[in-house]
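Why this split exists: single-chain examples teach little about how molecules sit against one another. For that reason, every record in the complexes split bundles all components of an assembly together and asks for one structure covering all of them. Below is a record exactly as it appears in the raw files.
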Amino acid sequence: MNAAKDTTEDKILEAATQVFVQKGMEGARMQEIADAAGINKALLHYYFRSKDKLFDAIFSKIVSFAFPKIGQILQAELPFVDKVEQAIDTYLDLLLKHPYLPGFILKEVNRDPSVFFKLVMKHGFKLEPIFQVMQEAMDRGELIRMKPEHLVVNVVGLCVFPFAAKPVISFVAFNEDPEATQAFFEERREEVKQFVIRAIQPIN
Amino acid sequence: MNAAKDTTEDKILEAATQVFVQKGMEGARMQEIADAAGINKALLHYYFRSKDKLFDAIFSKIVSFAFPKIGQILQAELPFVDKVEQAIDTYLDLLLKHPYLPGFILKEVNRDPSVFFKLVMKHGFKLEPIFQVMQEAMDRGELIRMKPEHLVVNVVGLCVFPFAAKPVISFVAFNEDPEATQAFFEERREEVKQFVIRAIQPIN
DNA sequence: GCATGATTTAACCAATTGGTTAAATTTGCT
DNA sequence: AGCAAATTTAACCAATTGGTTAAATCATGC
């Protein structure tokens, strides 16, 4: 995810991202981040004065990375169903490459929502345009009538939840077989698309 | 959730449940649990020798509570669609009463899956009977053909995810208006049922 | 060569925290 | 009353951890 320019600051950001994402803000240790970056604790504090400052920097990058510009896809001149397929594809691509993101973000957002709120305000992330597109598609009869909020939550939940619950799914449904688990997650792409389409398509 | 028998041990379990669920294993403080139980730290360790022991006791109760016997509903003599509706109703009832459970369980399972695995093995929780019921319903043409694993994950995700992501949803979609947020969560009951039914019903 | 910033070393500090201990006090029971 | 268990008090310990500091060393460009 990080463009490893190999400067010390980038090495720190890369290492910190890895450690923070895996262990969370509270579980991460400054010493471990320093080790992962191949430097020592003093230098780590020399670059980022405090753990909070370092975490904020990482969390900001991760949030803006994990809330991609789905908006553009939805604005295109396409049948709504195609837009939904594209959006799901884009998002599952991202999640398959970064499966730890959901667990990390959910954990941190529940620990201290205010940090997340500030970021969303700064990046000016809004749902209204997405709702707008959905309303218009409903008016054209391209999808069943429903509250856009629910549709967004349903689609995001179907995409994101399995990653946040991966250990549970892997153990309960696949006896911890890593290949079966991996196959399941790759199937999700088609599965979610078909499931959502069947759920939103009007009965002609 | 706890049957407050008012004995000291129950007071501890009640307080510990509250603190653990809100702050997680790592964020919880033994002193805070003692305070919440109206006792002191020495007595807390007198009843439960260590934080780990206390946490295991709470986590075990919570997991067996949050993985309810949906199996019984699915075994009944009913059209499959009705069973699904009942299962969703039962589960969303539980979640609306205990909205912190998803965030807590997901956090702890990602922190240390082994504890969860042992519990699942001890309680002998299996998905096969549920898969069986689904397969039979598919054979009878009562629902579309799909892998049962995906159907279970889809339904659980649609129910659970919004609770784990509540702060995000409340802020991004409802501008943190608590009443609008609450209304949205209560709507989920009908919304999820209709969404799932549309997605799994065969086109006659 | 020299000045400046980057980096290391290593010791240190203060706060937090899980856990212990021992003695005193209270409570409940017979 | 008297015994045992429950509970409090209060001090203490050891480990962890975020953060600091000061001096030494290294790298680099002017």
